[in-house]
Amino acid sequence: MGRVGVVLLVLLVIAAVRRWVHIIRGNAAQRLQRERRLRDSERTFRTIFDRAIDAQLLVDDGHVVTANAMAADLFGVSTPEALQHRLLDDLLSLPPGADIRTTSSHEFTVHCGETDVPVQCTVTDVPLDGRVLTHLVIRDLTMARQAKAEKAWFEAQIREAQKLEALGTLAAGVAHDFNNLLGVIRGNAELAKSALRKGRSNEEHLGAILDASDRARDVVRQLLTFSRRSTPTREYVNLSRLVLDLQPLLRRMIPRTVRLVIEGAEQAQLMMGDPTQLQQLLLNLVSNAEYAMRDKTDGVLTITLSSRHMPDSASEPHGAVVVLQVRDTGDGMSVDVRNRMFEPFFTTKPTGEGTGLGTAVLHGIVVSHLGRAEVTGEIGQGTTFELRFPRAVIEGLWDEELDHDHDAMIAESLADVALSAAEDGSAMDHDAPDVLVQSPYAGACVVVVDDEPGVARVVERALRHDGHVVHVFSQPEAALAFIQQQPSAVDLLLTDQTTPSMAGDRLAEAVHTLRPDLPVLILTGFSPRLTPERIAAARAHAVLLKPVTIEELRRAVDDALASARR
Question: 489 and 399: one domain?
């Protein structure tokens, strides 16, 4: 081997050594980098572990390896180190046979001193050096449970506030009905007292008093049923029957000039729900419709019930659904208003006339019943609320049985209506009573307009007792046609303000186009429309507030007839 060979060998050895040194240095750098990343990762994990707002434990073979400060607070010890080497089963006090490692999430209670704390535990496996540690994140649910309870309490308070708002809307209609009933009771009592002095029979007057008392009792019962506090329930509800049962209250919520139409209630529509909340939902919808048609004299409020099958591609609920539509002929709403309809505290009403919670509560009730609410309508085209709920089926009950019960209820309701109509008709058609008190203006022709048969009959009998000729009409149009045939033969018009098709002040204006000097008396219990300006425009001689006594009615009639003869 020559010198050249030796030199080449030396160079090869040097190159190999350098290569080996480079590899060793690279491996050492990588090892240092891995160790640094490991230390950083451990430091990050330790920081997150120690500063976490939830209690955290690392467990090896059923014993606690390490814990954070929140875990020490949760388990009532002074330092996290006091939890090390403790058995996990002893800390958690799990039920016999329960294994926290079998599922990833649990809810249970742990003992902290003398109190039980509700917690949620999330379990994760952590591989480490050929073994697997168990990482537990334990969240204290005390605040969450309190927040949930407070939310439920506030929701209940909002529903109660909405009940009060709905009852406020009902107040006008209830006041009108109660004033009518009080007028019937008081008027018949006065007529009975007058007849008693003459030795005449009081059976008819006493019967009218008892009937009016029963009707007043029914109004109070309906109000108490709606306004009572109740715990939310889930039960089978026939939505058709609920609407029909609520119809008297709905009728009182809307002006007499607005026509109420109920469609599809002849078929039973069954769903699962809370009857009180569904009543509130319906009253909220009608309250909104009442406000939209408050200034209309020919409004129509239509409540439609139906069933439908929704495909899977449609918004929930899918399959068989019960549909409730409430449609009004009000002023409608813009797209912007429609898009914000269900926002809390959003309202288009003036300050002091609405809380902005009505539709938000409505939407909450619909969602809690697994339903969906949609609003359609344009400016000047009215508004339609459509609510869809999953249809329910009672196991073991044939649809025919449910329909039979529902049909019996419908027949009973129709029979009651027919009987009421027959009684109303008989109230208008009877022999005139004898004259008990001779008025100085006896013989005057008085036209009476009132759609409440009991009130109309009391007024008619009182005026005929004074010797007047009385013509009673339940419809303003019929009274107007009668006066139009012989305007000079009528001496006085006495009309109720809130009649279904035409308000009393409007009737007075129409009559004065036929007979400008005809005196008009308007009876009213409550009417926001009847302002001093409207009274002046109608040229009413006087406005009498219900309930009016027979003596007050007699004086007002005599005064109006006297003014016409001056």
Answer: no
* Tens-place pLDDT, residues 404-463: 555 555 555 444 444 443 333 333 444 444 555 567 888 899 999 988 888 888 888 889
63 contacts 88 by C-beta, under 8 angstroms: yes
Q: CATH number for the domain including 289? A: 3.30.565.10
Domain match, 174 and 250 both: yes
Range of the domain at 7: 1-51
Based on the domain organization, do 31 and 118 belong to the same domain?
no
Residues found in the chain: 566
Q: Which residues are bridge partners to 322 per DSSP?
A: 307, 389
> Helices in 429-522 by DSSP H: which ranges?
453-465, 476-485, 504-514
Compute the C-alpha angle 369/374/377, nearest 5°: 150
Residues 6+ apart with CB under 8 A from 406: 238, 240, 241, 266, 267, 268
Domain boundary among 113, 140, 167: 140
Structural domain total, the chain: 4
DSSP string, 341-391: TTSTT---SPTTS--S-HHHHHHHHHHHTT-EEEEEE-TTS-EEEEEEEEB
Query: Does one domain contain both 322 and 390?
Result: yes
For 123, the token pair is: 């379990």
Residue 145 lies in a domain: no
d(CA 472, CA 469): 10
Q: Is residue 194 part of a domain?
A: yes
Looking at 85, 107, 140, the residue that finishes a domain is 140
Cβ-count burial 481-517 (b if 16+ within 10 Å, e if not): ebbeeeeeebbbbbbbbbbeebbbbbbbbbbbeeeee
pLDDT one-digit tens code per residue, 167-225: 665 665 566 667 777 777 878 788 887 777 766 777 777 877 877 777 777 666 656 65
| Residues in contact with 300: Cβ distance below 8 Å, sequence separation at least 6, in sequence order | 258, 259, 261, 328, 329
Half-sphere exposure of 142 (CA within 13 A, CB side): 10
Give all strands of the β-sheet with 383-390 in edge-to-edge order: 259-263, 300-310, 319-328, 383-390, 372-377
